[in-house]
Amino acid sequence: MQLNTGARIPILGHGTWKMSVTDAYQSTLHALTKAGYRHVDTAFAYQNEQGVGRAVRESEIPRDQIFVTTKLPPSKQGYEIALQTFNESLSELGLEYVDLYLIHWPGVVKLPENSPEHSKLRAQSWKALEKIHADGKAKAIGVSNYTVNHLKELMSQSQVVPAVNQIEFHPLLFAQQRDVLEFCKQHNIVVEAYSPLASGSSKLLELEELKEIASECNKTPAQVLIRWCIQHGTVVLPKSTHSERIDSNADAMRFQLSEKHMHQLDTLHERAGSFRSCWNPEGIL
Ligand code: A2P
Predict the structure, then answer these.
(1) pTM of the model
(2) Mean pLDDT over residues 65-87, rounded?
(3) Which of 34, 115, 170, 212 could form a disulfide with 111 if both were Cys (CB 3.0 to 4.6 A apart)?
(4) pLDDT tens for each residue of 97-112
(5) φ and ψ at 128, to 5 degrees?
């Protein structure tokens, strides 16, 4: 897939949220050297950049063939502190540059949801990301967990359109995320799907209807969910610490869901109910 910077982004990425440094190192090394992944996603807030960077360096894959993303945490919003935190991330990763740097969350920790400070500080952070991009230290910049309103605000303040918006995306959140998916498509912003398996929740993975679809396709429920994201045009970031799952999740690149199954998954939330496994940014002013 192509970003609005012209750079290519591999559709499948290895997610590392909640992983220790050791798990992030081992799983990323496996994903890169054994399972064919060329994209890994971490964040300052995950506290595992060291493990991810070590795997990237030890993989012996040329650096320009691996797409590395990290993120500015909600505790470090602001201009100077964002520049400083980015340098700390680079040093933890042990890399010269990242392919993508994201504002992790539209808000700032410890402020009430309706505080006007969120907006002021994330605008300052974006200025810092523009500088990091202009300096060539992040090949592309973007955001995460932004609603349509947050995106509209950013685009009214800056000439630089985010390359990416990374959001929670799976069938049980489809109703809530449809607008943001549509808006991003219109504005050439790539949507990245995090927690495509709803963070492994049985509320999604154990649904009989999903299991039936998987069995009709001769695939696992996880492969079906990852494929559903891909057919909605998103980049997808499943995460696993288990080698077999890292391998089998990648097989989602190699099959097609029928229109009937896509429709069934699109409407799954109507029968199974909505479910969000992570932060809800809708209240952040
Ligand atoms: P584990 O690390 O033990 O493999 P998401 O990508 O939606 O955030 O989901 C991540 C969670 O889903 C992790 O707990 C991970 O557990 C689990 N998981 C990853 N791949 C699979 C799979 N193929 N089948 C079942 N669970 C999976």
Answers:
(1) 0.98
(2) 98
(3) 115
(4) 999 999 999 999 989 9
(5) -65, -40
